[in-house]
Structure formats: structure tokens, C-alpha cells
Amino acid sequence: MTLLPVKTVVHHGVTHPFGDERTVKQAFPSAIPSEHADPFLMCDFFDSVESTGKAKHDDDFPVDWHPHRGMDIASYLRTGVGRHGDSLGNRETFDSPGMQWMSVGSGVVHAEGGANDVGTRVQGFQIWINVPSERKMDDPRYGTVPEKVLPLVTLDKGASARVLAGNALDVKGPFETVQDVQMIDFRLEKGSSVDFDVQKGLDTAVLYVYEGSLDSVNGKKGIDNGSVILFDADSDEHRGINMQANDTEEAGVMLFAGKKLKQPIAWHGPIVMTTQQEIGETLGELRSGRFPPKRVDWDYKRLDAFPKECR
What we know:
Strand content: over 45%
Low-confidence stretches: none
Radius of gyration: 19 Å
Largest sheet: 7 strands, antiparallel
Shape: globular
Number of strands: 26
């Protein structure tokens, strides 16, 4: 195995995605800019204790209704319970470890949260992946992934992994992305190690040490908690990643590998298109009530408006 060269090691940023006191740790774009993380747009890591408890009403969501267009999204929970509603008529909860994903295409309006009791630890990721310009107006798709469809793969030398997207470790990840990617959540016990070859043809490769720390990655020593490692993945001759855990603590590490789009990015909050004209058209649809173009016929924000067979 020939190892991938390490280009840079930086530290995650801290952002306020809701415009209030709530914060998340962000591997990209805060630490790794979009042009280097391409096709990955955003990785937010959250690890907090629920303070307000479960929603008081079926139609209440702490992350209120908001639109998306032009990307693939995964909400991956390691602990806690996920809850989701959307304009496709989905109303679901899912246990952890589990995942809810959307290929939002031409548009989805959704809301999240409100499934956990006070004091519950909720740890997980929200991940956005760009899609080619010609696929941004596809019909939206949705999936909920329980633990049985997200199996833990036992590796040699005291490590394990869950494959979220792409083909790896003789497993196909359940997140159905448009762009070709590999996303894997590695868990390293004290003193363990991982050797992994990134799929050929994927010219972006990033590791995010979201929990614990590592002794080394591809020979680079002293990889602290919160480190984001960007590799040079241009050559199909260099595909290997070697992770060595410390003897003192476990580590959680996410791998993001993908095929670069190399397309312009026009980004306006939860809308990601290729041109500013497309952003303007989307905002016009939102103002006129024509967004999203594909949606159920009933008021999806009110559970009592759902047909009985859909409740």
C-alpha cells in the first residue's frame, strides 16, 4: 500500500448555524474551503445534551421548516433519536446509530428535531454534498436508515467502521448520493490501527478526527482532537491511509472521499446552485409560493391534514 501524501492538517471551526447560542464544530468549509473539499460542501459535528426535551406537539420542530435545493444531505446520528418532516409527506423518527438522507434535487422543505428527552446526549453529523449542475433539478429522493442497514464492520487490530456512503469494506453504504463518494465512520480502540485504501478515481480525501486523538496519520505525528487532514489524492498510485491510535484514548474518525465536480458554486444559505441567476430564480419561487415544485397535495406541515393512510 502506497500512502496518500498529507497536504495539510488544520483544526475544525466553530459556527452558529441557527443564529443563536447553539454551536457546532465544522470540518468544512470552515477548516477546508469548498474548492479543496469538493464535492463536499459542509460537515457539521454536534455533541450536546438535550435541554428542552421532546416536542410538545406533533407539528413542533426545534429546527423549523426551511428549504433546500441542489445538494445531497445526510443527518447521521451516533447517539440520540432523530425526527424529521418534509414536503414529500415524510414524518419519521429513527434511532441511533442511524441516518436520514435526502437528495433534495429541485427542492425540499423540511424540519427536524424534538425526539429526545431532557438529558439525552445527542451526537452526530449533518453533511452536505454538491451535485453536478445538470442534476440539481432532479426529483427529490429520501431515505431513513436504521442500525440494521448501517452495520458495524469489524476490522483487524482493534478497530471498526460504519460505511455511510459508497462501496468499501465489502459493504455498500445506504446514503444514495448523486456524486461518487466514500463516507466511513471509523472507530479506533486504544492502541489500535487502521489501514485503508481510498477508491481509485476519487481525487478528494479528507479525514476528520471528531473524537479523541491519534498518534499518527500516514506518518504525521500528534494528530489532536478536532484535526482535519487533507490529502493529495490526485494519483491512483497513492491511495493508502494508515491511522495509529494513541495508547491512552479511543478515537472517532470520519473519512470523506469523493470525485471533484470542478464546477462553480453559487451558495445562498440552504440553496446551492451553479450560477447566481439560478439562486435568484429559486428565491423568486420561494417568494411566490411555487417552491418546492414537487410536493404532496396536502399541508405537509400539519399532521392532521395527512391522509389517514399516511399518518
